Amino acid sequence: MFPRDFAWGAGTAAYQIEGGWDSDSKGPSIWDTFCHHEKGRVFGEQNGDVACNSYELWEEDLQCIQQLGLTHYRLSLSWARLLPDGTTQHVNQKGVQYYNKVIDDLLACNVSPMVTLYHFDLPQALQDHGGWKSAGIAAAFDSYARFCFQTFGDRVKLWITINEPYVCAKLGHEDGVHAPGLKEPGVAAYLVGHNMLRAHAMAWHSYNSFYRPEQRGAVSLAINSDWVEPLHPGSTEGIAATERYLAFTLGWFAWPVFVTGDYPEVMRSAIDAQSRKLGHSGGSRLPSFSQDEPSVLGTADFFALNYYTSRKVKPGGGCGQVLCVKSDRDAVDVLDPSWPVCGVSWLAVVPHGLRRLLKYIKDTFHNPAVYITENGFSQVGPLQMEDVQRCEFYQDTILEVAKAIGEDVVDVRGYFAWSLLDNFEWADGFSVRFGLFHVDFSEAERTRAIYRSGQEYAKIIMKHRSQTSPGLPS
Ligand code: GAL
Known about the structure:
By secondary structure, the chain is of the alpha/beta class. It has one domain: Glycosidases (TIM Barrel, Alpha-Beta Barrel), CATH 3.20.20.80. It is 41% helix and 15% strand. The chain is built from 15 helices and 15 strands. A hairpin with an 8-residue loop joins strand 14 and strand 15. Helix 3 packs parallel to helix 5, helix 7 runs parallel beside helix 9 and helix 13 runs parallel beside helix 14. The radius of gyration is 21 Å and the shape is globular. The mean pLDDT is 96. It binds beta-D-galactopyranose.
């Protein structure tokens, strides 16, 4: 039995679905630049110029949302569509109109929006001034956030400031496989992660002081984490490696926000030990939070979790004589051969990992209210409309969420499938499909058609909504 007000949702992100990359005065974002200018980094040199064309076809998306019977829809705002140069000096009213319509239409259909302010697409103009590596980005993000709270907060009650800071920091600034494509191992990721936490905290404090009293919404940041267990459960080194692995993903962002206002001690000591080993001079590569800025501790009104998969962990891994996050972490992940991998190679299907992670979050982060803001399972070609495996995946995963609520008493408030539509899957382009709806990218109409897994999810939602007892606490 799910709580009465349980949020049954699906998610998308602006760059992955909207298209209209330069329509109506939208400014370019780092993903526009990355796709247009960095040859060989995105599958088939594809880009999000048109994607699902949701900028023009929003009403079709709304029909999909209604067909599923969603109570909630998670979307992200394109910063550069609203503020083409990233600053509030110049507001693009066409962008404001677009999102006003989306939000109003959702509410008119009884669907609550959950809005992400930042889902990987920094305005290029801000990247040109150092992007997330520059300390000044936090204030720029805070101005943008205030603008959004002011403009949309009368109707939006669930906010995510930043989606997956880990992915932005590491894939975008250390591995170079996401925009802005920087490869500055061992230093940039920590700086970017730090500025993202500062930016998030500033925006949360702004909401708390100026908007919450009237708007009464909730604000968090979406943290991605795999569930991990030691490859050799009896090994002390393996257990320690697993703890480090978690500290360098979940803990990196959740520990400062939910527990101490600072990074996990095991993370800092591992980074500093590695610096000493390789003769890195200067201070710690992991920045420190300043006493002069508002604290990052307590700046989340709920826990927003993106969960996709699980891993087994053992000590090791690194980059030789080069400093990098992997060698700081000194923990490598491997797949358990018993876990099926059917879509992208990194996504082993492990529904029970979600239950275990939810319990861990409850025990470690003071029993927060949790929204599962992303979870899903992709297919790669040849695509099947009768995607039976994905049907089973949703059934099994939602059962694990039910157990987490019913047996482990985790305060889970909602589940958002990733994704409403097949879309531009970052460096994988359109080759990897997470949608509950198929989108035909070969034709201008971008026709949407429901997969069997979409029908299955709709059934699950309908069943649970009709079974929920009005007497249960929300
Ligand atoms: C997340 C990301 C989503 C989506 C998903 C599937 O990291 O937030 O935008 O791409 O992964 O890979």
